[in-house]
Amino acid sequence: QVILEESGGGLVQPGGSLRLSCASTGSIFSVYAVNWYRQAPGKQRELVAAMSRDGAINYPDSVKGRFTISRDNAKEMVYLQMDSLKPEDTAVYYCNAVPPIGPVSYWGRGTQVTVSS
Predict the structure, then answer these.
(1) 15: alpha, beta or left? (left if phi > 0; alpha if psi -120 to 50)
(2) Long-range contacts from 60-63, C-beta under 8 angstroms, 24+ separation
(3) What are the average pLDDT values for consecutive 10-residue runs of the chain, which has 117 residues?
(4) C-alpha distance from residue 1 to each of 26, 34, 102, 107, 111 (Å)
(5) Is 89 helix (H, G, I), strand (E, B) or coil?
(6) Which end of the chain is more exposed for a tag (fewer CB within 10 A), N or C?
(7) How far is 69 from 52, CA to CA, in rounded Å?
């Protein structure tokens, strides 16, 4: 059973920064793909950062140049550095881990990020 837990959310002013963290109960991040998603009220969950098993990274245009995903396999942690935050970045942010085989992926419970003055 894989359990993911996000942390690091909070209230920040526009233009500010936050770093989200995702911890795992197992040694998975070196072999799983990892993603960060977000969901704002009344909107669908959207992908904001993706890292494959071999380290390939992708971002949607909405966050490219502002968000950075990284992974520390030794600490079993995944991070999302968010800079130049905008009010439209306000959402619950979720960590997602995808194993190399099988249909099941794992989700954390999310952490709230609010960007407001």
Answers:
(1) left
(2) 63/89
(3) 94 98 90 96 96 95 97 93 98 96 92 97
(4) 8, 16, 14, 12, 21
(5) helix
(6) N
(7) 11
